[in-house]
Automatic annotation (TrEMBL):
TM segment ranges: 39-61, 109-134, 140-167, 174-196, 233-252
One Pfam family per UniProt: ABC2_membrane
Subcellular location(s) per record: Cell membrane
UniProt name for this protein: ABC transporter permease
Length: 263
């Protein structure tokens, strides 16, 4: 039977019981035997934002309070996208029993990994609130653009997750390929450095701006820190989102029906 990506996503949101419960169960079983429990979910953003952020601020001669918010926000967005995509590549194989039993609304499994990444993102919000409070660049008005910007990030994660999950069901090496590509993209995403360090009219700035994570991070972070968003970022994300969804709809319609055979 031919599957339609948008219709399946809408059905998954209308009936979220499976993927929400499965995500909750994953998290409970992961931390229930740990003495420190949910502390381990808070630890990475705290360590990265204030530990790594202070270290790199010192290396660059920037006040720590000014740089930790920049690094922390970039890390949050980057982690959400990369965790969602890397786990999406193996989500169908991990749920093979459900798929073979006839639960073939495949978007449920994509949303399961995205919901898990979103949970960690939300846990980091108090850490980011402290980092923003420390930053002299924080602009309260930037909060007005936060939800639309995060929605745009989610929309792009949704189509990218759908594509890599279908391809990953057919080719197991996709997990390693996506992981390596995301690791490499970290170097071209303004997290440890700022967009001003790589102007768009330079070779390194042009290469960095070919990276979609560059723009997904900037669209969320820049308004919060009172930084201008380049017009190129708006154009890039409009084209990237539209072409991406058209490609994802085609891939899902053409190949999703083969997933039960591949897993």
């Amino acid at each position: 039977m031919t599957r339609h990506l948008v219709r399946d996503y809408l059905e998954s949101f209308r009936h979220p019981e499976f993927w929400i419960y499965a995500t909750w169960l994953d998290l409970v079983t992961k931390y229930r035997r740990s003495r420190l429990g949910m502390f381990w979910a808070f630890f990475p953003p705290v360590l990265y934002t204030f530990g790594v952020g202070s270290f790199f601020a010192h290396l660059q001669g920037i006040p720590a309070g000014k740089f930790v918010a920049h690094l922390g926000l970039g890390y949050m967005i980057f982690r959400f996208v990369t965790v969602s995509l890397s786990e999406a590549t193996t989500t169908y194989a991990g749920h093979a029993n459900f798929i073979l039993d006839g639960r073939v609304r495949l978007t449920d499994y994509v949303l399961r990994v995205v919901a898990k990444a979103l949970f960690y993102f939300m846990l980091a919000i108090p850490v980011m609130a402290v980092a923003l409070a420390m930053s002299p660049d924080f602009r309260v008005v930037g909060l007005l653009a936060l939800l639309p910007a995060l929605a745009l990030v989610f929309i792009n994660v949704a189509w990218m997750g759908a594509v890599v999950s279908v391809i990953g069901a057919r080719l197991q090496d996709v997990y390693e390929l996506v992981g390596s590509a995301l690791m490499f993209s970290f170097l071209f995403t303004p997290i440890l450095w700022t967009a001003a360090n790589a102007p768009p009219d330079t070779l390194r700035g042009g290469i960095a701006r070919l990276n979609p994570l560059f723009h997904l991070v900037e669209i969320v972070r820049a308004p919060l820190l009172g930084e201008p968003i380049e017009s190129w970022t708006y154009k890039y994300l409009v084209v990237f989102t539209l072409i991406g969804w058209l490609m994802a709809i085609h891939v899902y319609r053409r190949y999703a029906r083969f997933v039960p055979l591949w897993v």
